[in-house]
Specification:
The protein is α/β, with parallel strands linked by helices and 338 residues long. It has 14 helices and eleven strands. Bound molecules: flavin mononucleotide (FMN).
Length: 338
């Protein structure tokens, strides 16, 4: 009898072996070194930088380069780049490779006008041949595996994920991730999971060794389990579901490996993680900036927690470590949340 493959399992992306299949998605403005480190602590199998401008890399921009530095607990790191065409890849590759990325991911899904109008991000969905050329250019120059993150298509009338996937695979891509929405949908509406089932079957016929990852509406461990069961994708990429909620990696791994949800994360664990996140941010940004940048994360740590409005308000007004610590202490003592 052939044993059924567990829903939690290792992944091979080309010549790279990853211990598990619960990935942290690229999230512009969120997946910086500090947040990635926290997600690793809570069990993320593999982490992605936020999208990095290939043009910026080619120019040697310091801001761009800062995005490529690993956290101390990141043995492996996927760097996601955005670019309009292969010539830009050619110009930026030498600089990129100096940072030793584990995987190079190509952004073919960003819907933000500033990116789209340069011909990068989801504009590439309209030109599968450009996807082919970008992937082919990179894979000819390096043995670092290339992955591609696509959407269903530009809009409901131009769903073309078979074409974009075929182009990426012919160029030598070693992994495909699909955010199962169109560019026109942005981040609203329901992600089309049946399309993920279809994509997995399609890739299976063309390049069975290439893993397919699903993205879209993964807001809980049970949603991740359902996606894996329903669609047959090889792994999941948590995005908005991980914001203020790095615990989702631990919970999902627990659910997939034991069949049961772990006990809910305690208030103390939540607070300890939040402060740890703040101090990690401070290591690279300094206290002032870390306290400011932490605001967007801090309220997310209390999303869905009953009666947390006052706690969130106090946290976002904190401007020093001492203030954060004081508010956190008060939360644990039961003030704010009652
Ligand atoms: C604030 C924000 C920033 C994002 N930044 C990126 C990015 O830099 N690169 C990328 O490929 N996708 C990016 N995404 C898309 C996510 O990786 C993911 O595919 C999408 O949010 C769908 O998953 P979800 O419905 O579970 O959130 C971003 C999404 C959000 C909400």
């Amino acid at each position: 009898m052939v044993a059924q493959k567990s829903l939690y399992h290792p992944i091979d992306i080309g010549n790279v072996h990853i211990d598990g299949n619960l990935f942290l998605a690229p999230l512009a403005g969120y997946t910086d070194r500090a947040f990635r480190a926290i997600c690793k602590d809570w069990g993320a199998s593999f982490t992605y930088t936020e999208m990095v401008s290939s043009e910026g890399l080619a120019r040697g921009s310091n801001n761009t380069v800062d995005l490529l530095i690993r956290a101390t607990n990141e043995q492996q790191l996927a760097v996601q780049i955005f670019l309009p065409e292969a010539s830009v890849a050619q110009r930026s590759l030498e600089r990129l490779l100096q940072f030793n990325p584990t995987v190079i991911d190509i952004n073919c899904g960003c819907p933000v006008p500033k990116v789209v109008k340069t011909g990068a991000g989801s504009t590439l969905l309209r030109y599968p041949n450009k996807i082919y050329e970008i992937v082919n250019t990179i894979t000819r120059c390096t043995s670092v595996p290339v992955s591609v993150k696509i959407r269903l298509g530009w809009d409901a009338n131009t769903i073309n994920y078979h074409e974009t996937t075929a182009a990426a695979l012919s160029g030598g891509a070693s992994m495909i991730t699909m955010h199962a929405r169109t560019k026109a949908m942005g981040y609203s509406g329901k992600a089309d999971w049946p399309a993920l089932t279809d994509l997995k079957q399609y890739v299976q016929t063309l390049s069975p060794e290439v893993p397919v990852f699903g993205s879209g509406d993964l807001f809980s461990a049970s949603a991740a389990k359902e996606m894996l069961e329903q669609t047959g994708v090889d792994g999941v990429m948590f995005a908005r579901g991980a914001m203020g909620n790095p615990f989702i990696f631990f919970e999902t791994k627990h659910l997939l490996t034991s069949g049961i949800m772990p006990l809910p994360i305690s208030l103390e664990q939540r607070i300890e993680t939040l402060l740890n996140h703040l101090y990690r941010l401070g290591e690279t940004r300094g206290e002032d900036l870390a306290c400011r940048e932490m605001r967007k994360h801090a309220s997310a740590y209390f999303k869905g927690i009953p009666h947390a409005a006052k706690a969130k308000q106090a946290l976002v007004q904190s401007t020093t470590y001492a203030q954060y610590e004081q508010v956190c202490g008060s939360i644990i003592e039961g003030r704010f949340l009652s």
